Amino acid sequence: MANILTIENLSKSFNLHNLNKHIKAIDNIDFFLQEGEFVGITGKSGSGKSTILRCIYRTYLPHAGQIKYNSKRFGQIDLVGASEREIIELRKYEIGYVSQFLNVMPRTTARELVRNAIVEMGHEVEYADHETEIMLDHFELDHSLWDSYPVTFSGGEKLRLNIARAMVKRPRLLLLDEPTASLDHASKVKVKEVIEQLIKQGTTMLGIFHDLEFMQNLCNRQYHMEEGMMKTAAKQ
């Protein structure tokens, strides 16, 4: 099976000028994802897990290393050296990102959030409306919430909306940044059901979690982070 993502010697540091400090967040990270896999990363807070995902999504620009992504749009591309235009295109059409936080424009309804994601890809409004209803149904968001503002939603509802907004673009690669943090057991079960559906649909996923029980029987492989370095890799 071909690799969709290959990471080599990835490093990222931060300079805290006000404290005159240099902090190495991740150092010489190497790992890969094959198409259709779900790979998990564990580790304590501050170990560098989120930094890896943000480098892949290019929220952070790494200081060293390569992130080789096998794109349908551009072929083999190094996300570290990709242009801003290429990154925007990949975020639109191929790479999704879901975190425990839902950051949206104020006074934008759940329906509008998902519909706007489709329209920005160039689709007609009628098509976007139809696909939005299918997607909100698929992720079991109550119909009474579709035209409400997400600020009123529960944590589980916000997460399902976040995943729906990412998946409506049908990304080839989905990055999950601690999406189950602070959720109750019932909401975690619902999230797990959604992830299992996505795996069956062939989406490749890289997720970071504190909850090891949640990851059981879900991940193909697990990596563990300690102090910015990948210490171990394990099969489930």
UniProtKB/TrEMBL annotation:
Q: Which UniProt keywords apply?
A: ATP-binding, Cell membrane, Lyase, Membrane, Nucleotide-binding, Transport
What's one GO MF term for it? lyase activity
Keyword Cell membrane listed: yes
Q: What does the record say about its membrane topology?
A: Peripheral membrane protein
The UniProt record lists the ABC transporter domain at: 5-236
Q: Where in the cell is it found?
A: Cell membrane
Q: Supply the Pfam families for this chain.
A: ABC_tran
Q: Know the name of this protein?
A: Phosphonate C-P lyase system protein PhnL
